[in-house]
Structure formats: C-alpha cells, structure tokens
From TrEMBL:
<protein>
    <submittedName>
        <fullName>Ser Arg-rich splicing protein</fullName>
    </submittedName>
</protein>
<dbReference type="InterPro" id="IPR035979">
    <property type="entry name" value="RBD_domain_sf"/>
</dbReference>
<feature type="region of interest" description="Disordered">
    <location>
        <begin position="96"/>
        <end position="203"/>
    </location>
</feature>
<feature type="domain" description="RRM">
    <location>
        <begin position="12"/>
        <end position="90"/>
    </location>
</feature>
<dbReference type="InterPro" id="IPR000504">
    <property type="entry name" value="RRM_dom"/>
</dbReference>
<dbReference type="InterPro" id="IPR012677">
    <property type="entry name" value="Nucleotide-bd_a/b_plait_sf"/>
</dbReference>
<dbReference type="InterPro" id="IPR050441">
    <property type="entry name" value="RBM"/>
</dbReference>
<feature type="compositionally biased region" description="Basic residues">
    <location>
        <begin position="159"/>
        <end position="176"/>
    </location>
</feature>
<dbReference type="GO" id="GO:0003723">
    <property type="term" value="F:RNA binding"/>
</dbReference>
<feature type="compositionally biased region" description="Basic and acidic residues">
    <location>
        <begin position="177"/>
        <end position="203"/>
    </location>
</feature>
<dbReference type="Pfam" id="PF00076">
    <property type="entry name" value="RRM_1"/>
</dbReference>
<keyword id="KW-0694">RNA-binding</keyword>
Length: 203
C-alpha cells in the first residue's frame, strides 16, 4: 500500500522549470490552484547559497488535475518568465543529494576547457621531429610546407594558362590585322591599275 501511494504521489507531482529566482511558493500555488486542490508546493534551495535554483514542484491530489495543469501551464508566463511543466520523475531531494549535486556541478565548472591553441600546441609537441642538418622540422611543419608548395604550383600553372591564352589572343589579333592590311593593299592596287589603263578612243 505504501509503494502504491508513493507511485501515485510521483505521478501527481509536476516539475516546473524556468522560474525566476524571485518567484515565491505562494505565486506558484496561486497560478496552479485553478486546476484543482494542491497538496504541496516546493522550491528547492541551493545548499550553500540558500537561494532558489530556478525550478520547483507542484503536487496535486488528483492525477487528472495534474495532467490538465501540465497541458495548460506549459509556456505560461509567470512573473515575467515562460515556464515549462513536466511530470516529475523524482520528488523532493534530501540535503545530502543537494550537496552532492552542487559539488558535482562545481567540479565540472572548475575543469579547464581545452582551447584550440592548447590542442594545437599539444599536437605540435607530440609530433615526431625529423633532423635535417641543424634544423629540426616537425611533421606538421613539413605538411604545411608541402601545402604551400602545392598552392604555389597551382598558382604558377594558372598563370601559365593565362599567359598562353593571352598570347593566343594577341596572335589571332595580329593575324587578323595582317590579313586586313593585305586585303586593303590588294584593293588599292586594283584601283590604281584600273586608273592607269588608257581609255578607248572614240573614232
């Protein structure tokens, strides 16, 4: 019987998220009381700071009231924030659970984040060095040098293509101009020959 009561109580309890830290239990009870009789309203506090954690629990006596409240109050604006309402999987947390959760969150926040510069430095340090006379080039440096050479080769090939295309264009233009000059000279010669011929005399 006791386990059934705990099961019913868990499913009649709602988890309300995205609450303002200033929202009071009375405000939460007033917003949800229109859906039915409320058994309990609980806003957890941080164990160390004793301040609200931005979420709370509303427990109804009736399952149907809790279901209706969850459907109607999801996205409802309470005290300036749009709240989110779900079926609570767990009830109240005891102080020891709150201490362990707070310590875990602080430990995760203290872990240093690996930035891109740190990762690059570690990778370069771990890369095997290749001795070449007095200079030691890492594998990464050699790869960079290869990429630079490839880019230079590509740019050189593009320049050669452009130069060849421009040369072909200039050559075609010069050939067409030569042909035009030749045709013009031929026309001039024909005209001059026709003018030099004696005109027939009239008898």
């Amino acid at each position: 019987m006791g386990s059934r009561e705990r099961h019913d109580r868990r499913h009649a309890s709602l988890l309300v998220r995205n609450l303002k830290y200033e929202t009071s239990p009375e405000q939460l009870r007033s917003a949800f009381s229109k859906f039915g009789e409320i058994r309990d309203v609980y806003l957890p506090l941080d164990y160390y700071t004793r301040k609200p954690r931005g979420f709370g629990f509303v427990e109804f006596f009736s399952h149907s009231d809790a279901d209706e409240a969850m459907r109607e109050m999801f996205g409802y604006e309470l005290d300036g924030n749009k709240i989110e309402v779900f079926v609570a999987k767990h009830g109240r947390s005891d102080p020891f659970q709150m201490v362990s959760q707070g310590a875990e969150s602080r430990r995760s926040s203290r872990k240093p984040r690996r930035t891109e510069a740190m990762i690059r430095t570690q990778t370069e340090e771990q890369a095997p060095a290749v001795t070449c006379g007095k200079t030691e080039l890492t594998t990464l440096q050699r790869n960079r040098e290869r990429r630079r050479r490839r880019s230079r080769d590509r740019s050189y090939s593009r320049d050669r293509r452009r130069r060849s295309l421009s040369y072909d264009r200039r050559r075609r233009r010069s050939i067409s101009r030569s042909r035009e000059r030749y045709r013009s000279r031929e026309r001039d010669r024909r005209v001059s020959r026709s003018m030099e011929r004696p005109s027939p005399r009239c008898v």
